[in-house]
């Protein structure tokens, strides 16, 4: 229920397992706002500036399928961020709230447990939140998300390398205990690194996978991997928030043939 008494479309949690096309290798699906993730890749447009959030709340024409609000970059004192996010969802776009830890590439430097009230505010009224697999509050956020039927993206980042395939498969197994969507992002230095991530997309997973690379070879993965089954493609709406990130509008154009 929105603060003004209106109703925001919610997801089913946990979501039913649906029949998948062969290319997704027996991967599960989940409802994500109005979308079924795991069948057609969806473009996430990231917001990192408060003025962009205000503008998005007032318009219906946007360059993405899903809006990610990086609350760690906007600042937790951003006025009416929940209301603006609800207005975006009222226009039909699911919203993901991310409060990224500094050690995971974000700007949250306060104690981890102080994120809990922010996550709870988002979980009560919005489609999804994103939390790191290595966060000590993962279990608590997962329990809140399940209780309020909110989707949970569980993220894993490695900013130095692409770990071996066996290690990444263990990441999937650990994240699947909590996640509606598993997001894996690693630094890709070589074609072999890209190959590891490509192979990961062909592994069986009980939940939809979002896989992408960072670094000099990262941009190609943001376009090619959605064609191989990565359920989300991330681009920016105002300012890049990751190395070599591309515009959400460019991703929408390049992935148009998959819709």
Question: Which descriptors would you attach to this protein?
Answer:
259 residues; 20% strand; two-stranded antiparallel sheet; 9 helices; 10 strands; eight-stranded parallel β-sheet
Notes on the protein architecture:
The chain is an alpha/beta fold and 259 residues long. The chain has one domain: Aldolase class I (TIM Barrel). Helix content is 30%, strand content 20%. The protein has helices at residues 50-58, 71-74, 81-90, 116-125, 138-147, 165-175, 191-200, 218-224, 248-254; strands at 30-32, 35-37, 42-47, 66-70, 95-98, 128-132, 151-158, 181-187, 209-214, 232-236. Strands 9-8-7-6-5-4-3-10 form an 8-stranded parallel beta sheet. It has a two-stranded antiparallel sheet with strand order 1-2. Helix 5 links the parallel strand 6 and strand 7. Helix 1 (50-58) packs parallel to helix 3 (81-90) and helix 4 (116-125) packs parallel to helix 5 (138-147). The longest helix has 11 residues, at 165-175. It is globular and about 45 Å long. It starts with 29 loop residues before the first strand and ends in a 5-residue tail after the last helix. Mean pLDDT is 87; it is low at 1-26.
Q: Helices and strands in order, then pairings?
A:
Blueprint: E1 30-32, E2 35-37, E3 42-47, H1 50-58, E4 66-70, H2 71-74, H3 81-90, E5 95-98, H4 116-125, E6 128-132, H5 138-147, E7 151-158, H6 165-175, E8 181-187, H7 191-200, E9 209-214, H8 218-224, E10 232-236, H9 248-254
Parallel strand pairs: 3-4, 3-10, 4-5, 5-6, 6-7, 7-8, 8-9
Antiparallel strand pairs: 1-2
């Amino acid at each position: 229920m929105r603060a003004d008494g209106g109703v925001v479309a919610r997801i089913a949690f946990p979501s039913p397992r649906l029949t998948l096309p062969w290319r997704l290798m027996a991967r599960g699906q989940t409802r994500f706002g109005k979308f079924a993730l795991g069948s057609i890749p969806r473009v996430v447009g990231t917001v990192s500036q408060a003025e962009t959030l205000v503008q998005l709340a007032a318009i219906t024409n946007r360059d993405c399928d899903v809006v990610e609000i990086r609350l760690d970059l906007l600042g937790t004192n951003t006025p009416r961020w929940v209301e603006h996010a609800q207005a975006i969802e009222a226009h039909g776009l699911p919203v993901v709230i991310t409060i990224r830890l500094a050690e995971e590439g974000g700007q949250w430097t306060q104690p981890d447990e102080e994120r809990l009230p922010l996550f709870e505010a988002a979980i009560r009224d919005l489609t999804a939140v994103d939390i790191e697999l290595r966060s000590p509050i993962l279990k608590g956020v997962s329990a809140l998300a399940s209780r309020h039927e909110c989707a949970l993206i569980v993220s894993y980042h490695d900013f130095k390398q692409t770990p071996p395939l066996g290690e990444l498969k263990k990441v999937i197994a650990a994240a699947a205990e909590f996640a509606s969507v598993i997001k894996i992002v690693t630094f890709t230095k070589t074609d072999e690194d890209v190959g590891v991530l490509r192979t990961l997309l062909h592994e069986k997973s009980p939940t939809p996978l979002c896989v992408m690379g960072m670094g000099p070879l990262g941009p190609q993965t943001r376009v090619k991997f959605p064609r191989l089954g990565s359920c989300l493609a991330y681009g920016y709406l105002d300012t890049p928030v990751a190395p070599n990130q591309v515009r959400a509008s460019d991703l929408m154009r390049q992935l148009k043939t998959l819709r």
